[in-house]
């Protein structure tokens, strides 16, 4: 008797889940029924789902992926109330590359003046992530540029003396020694007399453990900006069903949904079709 009840309850739950899931799917499908031509702003020509411009019809795109178009020339993304210029949106691998709006080509050495690391994006299911989920191992999309200030001079191939870079200097600049470190940095790489002053992200393609970094290298790294993934929005129909479901990119950059139950997989495929 108890067994029978549990079974019925189980079937009911499953049915309700299917109905709910199909509704989540079809929200996206409805939005797509309403044709939204790609928008354009400056060099970014192909702004389409999930991205939208502030000026687009409300039904287009997803509000979490809203960009503003400044002076009709620059696509701008606001993250943590900071302003970033969009360099490219990649629909092939679900990434966007942005650069802090304070970093300019002609400003030879400008650090953003605040810290931004992978931790800032580590909130559960945030709209942007700093990695791409892969089946075997997540792909990191960026690494850190670290600005350190030290009480004593440091002589290391891994440290670039920031005073040679014409860095914008504050008052206590002369009292301390400043260095920049690029690539992988772990706690043991920070010399005893040093503390981390600022950290920033870059996706500049390069060695994880570079030596003899130059001021120009660092400038290029900051100017290149960093990639973020927006795959989360594509994965939502898959992960909303249950915490046991998640999605990832396979080796051909195709979205795959992994579910505890096989029918989840079909539903995610269905959503994916609607969205493309
Ligand atoms: C624009 O983006 C869509 C995906 O949203 C893609 O199918 C299309 O090929 C892109 N067009 C160009 C010119 O990049
Ligand atoms: C922005 O640029 C587009 C395409 O060049 C043009 O059609 C539009 O009128 C411009 N809008 C403003 C407000 O300048
Ligand atoms: C994503 O695609 C863009 C354009 O093809 C490429 O420049 C970028 O390196 C790719 N990112 C990853 C993580 O594969
Ligand atoms: C990122 O996180 C760090 C440490 O919590 C914080 O100091 C910093 O202000 C955050 N950055 C932004 C842009 O919010
Ligand atoms: C951190 O640095 C130490 C010493 O250089 C090295 O042995 C260790 O493997 C590093 N750890 C990571 C996670 O890179
Ligand atoms: C880095 O610079 C040092 C000193 O100038 C030099 O001896 C070394 O060969 C350089 N290493 C690389 C990988 O360029």
From TrEMBL:
InterPro entries: WAK_GUB
Transmembrane annotation, as ranges: none
Domain Wall-associated receptor kinase galacturonan-binding positions: 36-100
Entry GO CC: membrane
Membrane topology listed for this record: Single-pass membrane protein
Keyword Signal attached: yes
Pfam families linked to this entry: GUB_WAK_bind
Name of the featured protein: Wall-associated receptor kinase galacturonan-binding domain-containing protein
Secretion signal span: 1-28
Keyword Signal among UniProt keywords: yes
Cellular compartments annotated: Membrane
One term of GO molecular function: polysaccharide binding
Chain segments annotated as coiled-coil in the UniProt record: none
UniProtKB keywords: Signal
């Amino acid at each position: 008797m108890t067994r029978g009840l549990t079974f019925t309850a189980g079937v009911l739950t499953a049915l309700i889940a299917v109905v709910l899931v199909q509704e989540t799917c079809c929200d996206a499908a409805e939005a797509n029924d309403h044709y939204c031509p790609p928008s354009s702003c400056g060099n970014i020509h192909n702004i389409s789902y999930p991205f939208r411009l502030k000026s687009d019809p409300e039904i287009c795109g997803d509000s979490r992926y809203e960009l503003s178009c400044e002076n009709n020339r620059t696509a701008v993304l606001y993250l943590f109330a900071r302003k970033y210029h969009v360099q490219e949106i990649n629909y092939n691998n679900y990434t966007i590359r942005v650069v802090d709006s304070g970093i300019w080509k002609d400003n030879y050495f400008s650090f953003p003046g605040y810290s931004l690391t992978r931790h800032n994006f580590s909130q559960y299911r945030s709209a942007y992530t700093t990695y791409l989920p892969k089946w075997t191992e997540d792909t990191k999309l960026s690494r850190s540029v670290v600005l350190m200030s030290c009480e004593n001079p440091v002589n290391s191939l891994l440290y670039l003396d920031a005073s040679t870079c014409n860095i914008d200097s504050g008052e206590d600049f002369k009292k301390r020694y400043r260095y920049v470190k690029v690539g992988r940095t772990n706690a043991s790489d920070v010399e005893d007399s040093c503390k981390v002053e600022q950290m920033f992200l870059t996706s500049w393609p390069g060695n994880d453990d570079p030596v003899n970094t130059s001021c120009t290298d660092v400038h290029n790294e900051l100017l290149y900006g960093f990639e973020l993934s927006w795959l989360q929005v594509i994965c939502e129909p898959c992960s909303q069903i249950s915490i046991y479901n998640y999605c990832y990119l396979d080796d051909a950059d195709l979205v795959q949904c992994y579910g505890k139950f096989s029918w989840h997989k079909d539903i995610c495929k269905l959503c994916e079709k609607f969205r493309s």
